[in-house]
Automatic annotation (TrEMBL):
Residues 4-135 form the Coiled-coil domain. Pfam families: CCDC34 (PF13904). Residues 1-38, 45-57 have a biased composition (Basic and acidic residues). This is CCD34 protein. Residues 1-57, 79-102, 115-138 are annotated as: Disordered. It comes from Melanocharis versteri.
Amino acid sequence: MNIQLEEMKQNQECERRKRIAEEKHKEWVQKKREEERRERKRKVSKEMAEKATKELEKMQLQEKADVKYKEWLKKKRAEEVEKKKKEKEKEKEREAELQEKRTRSEKIFKEWLQNARNKPQPALNGYGFPHGKSTGLY
């Protein structure tokens, strides 16, 4: 009977240890799962933060590029306006020179016309050419 009692005690002790071991194992597994879940959450939040940072940097880069493009476009348009202004000035200058040349030419032509009226006319029947034409005979 003592032996049976002893065996029972040992069985009970063994079962108790098994139960405790199982409980500890369950706790360990639960703790491990909780830790893995927290680790996943941390990874996801870290990835989201990195993604947000990259997106922010990308947006800042885009804004910077837009500002530079607008400055370049403004500069280019100003250059274009300046170029057109210079071309207009050159055209006006050319037109003024042309007008001055015309007036000078007209003045010279009028002077020549005045002088041509006052010059004596050449003799028509000179040197054997009656009526200014050759007769074919000497």
